[in-house]
Amino acid sequence: MITVEVELGDRSYPVLVGAGVRHELASSLPAETRRVAIVTQEGVGVEVESGRTQQRFLIGDGESHKTMATVNRLCSEFARWGLTRADCVVGVGGGLVTDVAGFAASVYHRGLNVVHVSTTLVGQIDAAIGGKTGVNLPEGKNLVGTYWQPSAVLCDTDTLVTLPPREWRCGLGELAKYHWLGAGRIDDLPLDQRIAACVRIKGAVVASDEREGGRRAVLNYGHTLAHAIETAGTFDLRHGEAVAIGLVYAAEVARRLGRIDDDAVDEHRRVLAAYDLSWWLPDGLADAELQALFARDKKATHDVTLVLDGPQGVEAVSGIDPEVLAAAFSAVRP
User: pTM for the complete prediction?
Assistant: First the structure.
């Protein structure tokens, strides 16, 4: 088992990575916990034992259930069960579960402790770490949410063994971005060490910029186009697959701005190819529609903002010429 500490002063917490770490849940709960509300999905199939009185609360599968209505229903169910501030919420599942469970915990009784048992690769290296919670609106992904740090995160690598191939590739899309956030070529590391390397990077970024006032935006490398793809329509793309397309698009924008050279763009494609990830946009998505959606991205303030590679590494860049953004779409069209 590998333990990575997310350093946030008196709100610091451990992230446990390794085979079987879900069985550490009882010892990872805050000492005062009396009862545990397990938020999960029917298809997750991962049982946990908290050592306290516990009850399961199910949410639906898919982005259509990541809504305020789901949070409202969860909070009502918490209230009917009698959940109090002395209790704890535990999210067991992928990024959708931990986002929704964390949001519900943050607003119910103005904030309950929450522990995440992350069961997917994308959750273990990204979604469950850092305290960002949220739900979607028809206008865009994750537009309503809170910053609410968990008390602990358990990343059990045993739960990854049964992931469907596309769910695994979804996680690899998120893992790929860490190659440009300081992880380097982590391809040859054992799985638990690869996950822990990503957690260390994310934990360090969160510790330096908890509420995304600056540096934390780098964690959204590849996400501006990815979120636009997901908002634009019901296309058969998982989040990580959309991020892979967004990584190449961002690299092409950076090249056109003179921030990186052709070799750096080729390295983006090499990494994605090694993970068996495509960087081609699906048919039916118009460039103009996707570009218009950039303005709704959470990083945008006065101007469209993209996270781009460059001589100083990955950073958020605003004020990009719209013609450059438009021209870069040709690089992600078959």
Answer: 0.89
